[in-house]
Amino acid sequence: MIVPSVAAVVALALGVLSACSSASGSSSATAGDPNAEFTFWSFTGIGAKNSVSEYLAKNPSAHVKLSEVGSTTETATALTAALAGGVVPDLVMIQGDDLPKFVANPSNFVDLRTLGGKDLASAYLPWAVGAATATNGSVIGVPTDVGGLGLAYRADLFQAAGLPTDPAEVEKMWSTWDGFIEMGKKYTAATGKPFVDNVETSVFFSTVNQVTEKYYSPDGKRVYDTNPQVKNAFDIAVKTYQAGISANIAAWSSGWDPGKANGSFAVTIAPSWLLSGLKSAAPATAGNWRIATVPGVGGNWGGSVIAIPARAAHRDAAWQYIKTMESAQNQTEHFTKTGTLPAAKDSLTSSAVLGYTDKFFGDSQIGQVMSESVQKFNSFYNGPDTSAIGSGLLNALADMQAGNVKPEDAWTKGLKNVKDAVG
Asked: What is the pLDDT of residues 267-279, one digit of tens each?
């Protein structure tokens, strides 16, 4: 992907939508019409074009002008610039890690309760709605998806190592993170090869998203450096590294996709939105992978909301899109087409989701694993610097794996990284 410059992103936010795709019916529409042409900003990689196509198939008289701005961060940057005085979109997708800074300024967005979204908390996962709810009670976004956690493992490699291959048996062996590490030791001892791809995403991102309190206290104070749950999650990652079972191959590094295909590791993190990437990276391994629950109590990595800026010119048309595409029925339908895990509670408990399997993953109960993961997920407060804090700690673990930081010094390095980033 070609990353645009900051100037290009800001130009886009100010209305120079040179990369837009437009889809509409044949008739013109007024600004107050629910079928008025509305602008929709999304980030890449979430299938927004497919979603718009689905919407137009359901509403042929609708008019949508879609712009896939760039990465999640680039989209948030463009939105920040637009809210500061530029031309805002009528509808915008916001990734979960970028959401807190926008929730902190709810006056920039339409309170969706005023458009008919009064029962959002009962229709969607409470914690997903809560993440989009400001301290004044305003709900600025409807959850579009979540990132249920699982672990993907190579059943063929497990079998060669003399380990169980059935997901239910594997889950019993690694029901705790200590069990996961012990299983990894057995695998490495039997094969001479690493067990897991890395410790920063597959272990730390899993464990730190299983806590009841993360980097902030419920009243919005930073507690990342004093919270024992965060330190414990970090320590589990360090312990995994010290066990000698990590391939030290970072997610999205040049060796990550080849490693999935050539057996450089047997286990990798598998949030719902990464499954399609695993399939495309290692097509020759079809049928060898399985999906199992993560040790502990489930978890979530990822997810987005869709919001309407307060200065949107066509809020009625934008709200019609939300009502149509984010209903439980349509989130279920979208899941069956794309694998994007729903946030609507009725969708998560539907037979279509709970019964979902994929032959690539040996008919593992993917839908059930992911659905249970997000329903068990603990709710905690995310503040405006959650993403930066997580990156600082993760980078310290990456430096440890690269041999640049001793394991016993990694936590101190992580805290320094965070302080340098957010003060």
From this structure: 999 999 999 999 9
Rounded to whole angstroms, the Cα distance separating 155 from 203 reads 20
Residue 93: closest CA among 139, 48, 50, 52: 48
Residue 17, token pair as written in the block: 């939508």
The confidence score (pLDDT) of residue 11 equals: 37
Q: Are 297 and 137 in contact (CB under 8 A)?
A: no
Q: Are 44 and 1 in contact (CB under 8 A)?
A: yes
- What three-state secondary structure class fits 56? helix
Query: Which pair of tokens denotes residue 280?
Result: 């495309």
- For residue range 165-177, list pLDDT tens digits in order: 999 999 999 999 9
Predicted TM-score of the model (pTM): 0.88
Q: What is the DSSP string of 1-29?
A: -PPPPHHHHHHHHTT--TT-EEEE-SS--
Q: Give the DSSP letter string of 117-179.
A: -TTHHHHB-HHHHHHTB-TTS-B-EEEEEEEE--EEEEHHHHHHTT---SHHHHHHHTSSHHH
- Residue 380 CA: distances (Å) to CA of 82, 305, 377, 420: 29, 17, 9, 24
Phi, psi dihedrals of residue 315, rounded to the nearest 5°: -65, -30
In angstroms, the CA 293 to CA 318 distance is 37
Taking the C-alpha atoms of residue 143 and residue 343, their distance in angstroms, rounded to an integer, is: 6
Contact 323, 123 (CB under 8 A): no
Q: Could you give the CA distance from residue 140 to residue 109 in angstroms, rounded to a whole number?
A: 6
What confidence category does residue 32 fall into, taking pLDDT thresholds of 50, 70 and 90?
low
